[in-house]
Specification:
Layout lengths: L2 H6 L3 E8 L3 E2 L4 E6 L3 E8 L7 E6 L2 E3 L4 E3 L2 H4 L7 E5 L7 E4 L7 E3 L4 E9 L4 E5 L9 E3 L9 E5 L5 E7 L6 E6 L5 E7 L4 E6 L6 E3 L4 E2 L3 E8 L1 E7 L1
Antiparallel strand pairs: 1-22, 2-21, 3-20, 3-22, 4-19, 4-21, 5-14, 6-7, 7-12, 8-11, 8-14, 9-10, 9-13, 11-12, 15-16, 16-17, 17-18
Length: 238
C-alpha cells in the first residue's frame, strides 16, 4: 500500500519492517503484507470494534497477593464465573502477570481492551479473578499496575452471533467454508471443514503458528505480533 493511499485513508502511521524473530507490541496496526512466507507465534487483535458490552464496573483496587480485582458490590451480583468480560485499563501501566501456563513458560501480561474470563468471585470482599481462557486458571499478578480512575473498568461482553459474510472454496472432498464473524468465542476469522469442525486461522486471544504466504496482504486490527520466520511489512495508523 502506497504512502499516499495511507494518507488518503487517514491512517498514515509508522510502517514497520519485520524479519525473523522480531516482536512488535502495543501497536495500532491495520494490515500485514508478507514479503516472504511468514509464520507468527503471536498475532493479537484489537477486538473492540466488534464488541458490545453492558454496564462498566470501575476497578477500585488490584491485589497482587491474591490476584484479585476489587469491583463495586452491585457488580458482584451481576457477574458469574465463566463470564466473558472486557478489561479496559485507560493507561499504560497495567498489572503484570507471572508464568501461568504449565509447561509453556509464557508470561501472561494483561492487555488493555482485551477479553478475559471471570475465574473466581469473592462475594465477601467484592473481588474477582481473571483468566485468559476457560479452565486456564487465574492469572497470577506480580505487580498491581496503576489505576486510572473511571477509565479502569470491567464490563460483561454481550452475547453475539452475527456474520459479516462467508465464502466457500470447493476442492473435491477438501471443502472449506470461511467466515468473518462476531466474537462469539473470541475468534473473528473462522474456517470450517465439511464436517463442521472449526479451525481458527486468526485467534484473537493469541494465535499459534499462524502462516501468511508470500505476497498476501491481510487487513487485521493487530496490536501485538511475534514473527517467528519470514519478512513482512506492518502498516499502522495514528
Amino acid at each position: 500500500m502506497s504512502k499516499s493511499l495511507q494518507l488518503t485513508l487517514g491512517m498514515g502511521g509508522p510502517t514497520l519492517l519485520m524479519t525473523d524473530g522480531d516482536i512488535a507490541n502495543n501497536i495500532n496496526g491495520y494490515a500485514i503484507q508478507a514479503l516472504e512466507n511468514c509464520t507468527f507465534s503471536q498475532l493479537d487483535l484489537d477486538m473492540t470494534p466488534t464488541i458490545t458490552t453492558g454496564e462498566h464496573y470501575v476497578i477500585s483496587a488490584v491485589t497482587n497477593a491474591s490476584n484479585e480485582f476489587t469491583l463495586p458490590a452491585a457488580a458482584i451480583n451481576k457477574l458469574s464465573v465463566g463470564d466473558r468480560v472486557l478489561l479496559n485499563w485507560g493507561g499504560v501501566d497495567l498489572p503484570q502477570g507471572t508464568v501461568q501456563e504449565s509447561g509453556v513458560n509464557r508470561p501472561t501480561e494483561f492487555k488493555d481492551k482485551t477479553i478475559y474470563f471471570i475465574q473466581a468471585i469473592d462475594t465477601a470482599s467484592n473481588e474477582v479473578k481473571l483468566e485468559e481462557t476457560l479452565g486456564a486458571g487465574a492469572i497470577t499478578i506480580s505487580d498491581d499496575g496503576t489505576l486510572y480512575g473511571k477509565d479502569s473498568w470491567i464490563a460483561k461482553v454481550s452475547d453475539q452471533d452475527f456474520s459479516y459474510g462467508t465464502f466457500t472454496r470447493n476442492a473435491a472432498s477438501n471443502d472449506r467454508t470461511h467466515e468473518i464473524s462476531g466474537n462469539v468465542d473470541g475468534n473473528i476469522f473462522k474456517t470450517s471443514e465439511d464436517s463442521g469442525l472449526q479451525v481458527n486461522m486468526f485467534d484473537t486471544t493469541g494465535a499459534s503458528d499462524v502462516t501468511i504466504p508470500t505476497g498476501m496482504t491481510v487487513y487485521l486490527p493487530v496490536t501485538d505480533i511475534t514473527l517467528t520466520t519470514g519478512a513482512c511489512i506492518v502498516y499502522t495508523k495514528k
